[in-house]
Automatic annotation (TrEMBL):
Membrane topology of this protein: Multi-pass membrane protein
Domain FIST C-domain, residue spans: 249-397
Name of the protein described by the UniProt record: FIST C-domain domain-containing protein
InterPro entries reported in the protein's UniProt record: FIST_C (IPR019494), FIST_domain_N (IPR013702), UCP018953 (IPR016741)
FIST domain residues: 31-232
Length: 418
């Protein structure tokens, strides 16, 4: 297995295509089995020309990609670079012996309903669950049922990793596009199911830190939290919630804000989120144990809060804050944890590659400097990296796949055995 990536900032699409093809073909030194292309929305008026141009210069059995407000790839100095709002083209090629590559593209009308059996989802995708496929998903922003699709895919392939992102545009808008083979698709998902001698491992950096303590939801309707309970101050750790106080979530939030530093109070005015605990039984909670969701609004009369996901009684929630320092620390902590746990990923390995799906709300606008997330990743793993800035990022929390916001999702693609 070999992966290579190249990035071009040439303003001419023909010149950019020629440059990335020449660099990647020279570096791969093997026949490519798969290509991934990410193109800046600065080229949106030329999206229809992209795939024919690539096919003209590059004989490749499988190629997918999308347009984006920013693209990520390896520059001529073999440094990861994030190009935001400017013309750029990123191409990744992979030589994948002993890997079966199954492409698909779907519209919302193709999806089974959520009461269907897993067999109908398997028939739709066209790959057997026992093949243990790993999924790369690129979604047009006008595809209307992404959450239903992810639910169905998890239902049919519960042990499979799914990573990807929603195509985006720049600040000036423009056309969107997802690509597969020689075609551009609108309002669809294009994807790959990879099976055989390959695994995709993930780092999902949601960029938040918890404040206060967890609350258990006692009353909720859909995405509205109506009542929570909090452990009493004199409760013992092993019996907390057995002696508890029930209150509205708004009261809980108001009490919490009073305990914050002035800096965090200011941050809470515009960067407050809710983390939903994914493991009902885990007591000591860490980054990665929460699914971070937007705090959509509050109802002062009822004391309720609305969050960007369904919640049910019995689940635990905790308020979170996000800023550049927290995002940086969260990503580094998760990278270090992955490095410790990935004992089968030796230092200096070259037969692997990584994909980065980062929110448009991160990048230079968050950190005040370019290339932050990508170069932090590369500080730990000297492997090719490519990707794009998304309108939503796809990755797992625990064993469930979600559509995220303000997140950087990394998919590390490697052989099962070295």
């Amino acid at each position: 297995m070999r992966w290579v990536s190249a990035l071009s900032e040439r303003p001419s699409l023909e010149a950019a295509v020629k440059e990335v093809v020449e660099i990647t073909q020279d570096a791969l030194r093997a026949s490519p089995d798969l290509g991934l292309v990410f193109i800046s929305s600065a080229f949106s008026s030329e999206y229809s020309r992209l795939m024919p141009l690539l096919q003209e210069h590059l004989k490749l059995p499988m190629l997918i990609g999308c347009g984006a407000g920013g693209v990520i790839g390896m520059n001529s100095d073999y440094q990861a670079e994030e190009i935001e709002g400017e013309p750029a083209l990123s191409l990744t090629l992979a030589h994948l012996p002993d890997v079966a590559i199954h492409p698909f593209h779907l519209s919302a009308d193709d999806l089974p309903d959520l009461d269907s059996s897993p067999d109908q989802w398997v028939e739709l995708i066209g790959v057997k669950p026992e093949d243990q496929p790993q999924f790369i998903l690129l979604v047009d922003p006008y595809f209307g049922q992404i959450n239903d699709f992810l639910l169905g895919l998890d239902y049919a392939y519960p042990g499979s990793v799914k990573v990807g992102g929603v195509a985006s545009t720049g600040a000036m808008g423009g056309a969107t596009g997802v690509f597969s083979g020689s075609k551009r698709y609108s309002e669809e998902i294009v994807g790959l199911a990879l099976s055989g001698n390959i695994v995709i491992e993930t780092i999902v950096a949601q960029g938040c830190r918890p404040i206060g303590h967890p609350y258990r939801v006692t009353q909720a309707e859909r995405n509205i939290v109506l009542e929570v309970e909090t452990p009493s101050a004199d409760s013992e750790p092993e019996t907390k919630f057995s002696v508890s106080v029930r209150l509205s979530p708004l009261e809980a939030l108001q009490d919490l804000v009073q305990e914050l530093s002035e800096e965090d109070r200011q941050l809470a005015q515009h960067s407050l989120f809710v983390g939903v605990v994914r493991d009902e039984f885990k007591q000591k909670l860490e980054p990665g144990d929460f699914l971070i969701r937007n705090l959509i609004g509050v109802d002062p009369k009822a004391g309720a809060i609305a969050i960007g996901d369904r919640v049910r009684p019995g689940q635990r929630i905790q308020f979170h804050l996000r800023d550049s320092r927290t995002s940086a620390e969260d990503l580094e902590l998760l990278i270090e944890r992955y490095q410790r746990q990935a004992s089968s990923f030796p230092q200096g390995v070259t037969n692997a590659g990584a994909l980065m799906f980062s929110c448009l709300g991160r990048g230079e606008g968050l950190y005040g400097e370019p290339n932050f997330d990508s170069r932090l990743f590369r500080r730990y793993f000297n492997i090719p990296l490519s990707g794009f800035f998304c309108n939503g990022e796809i990755g797992p929390v625990r064993d469930t796949t979600f559509l995220h916001g303000y997140t950087s999702v990394f998919g590390i693609c490697r052989q099962k055995n070295y």
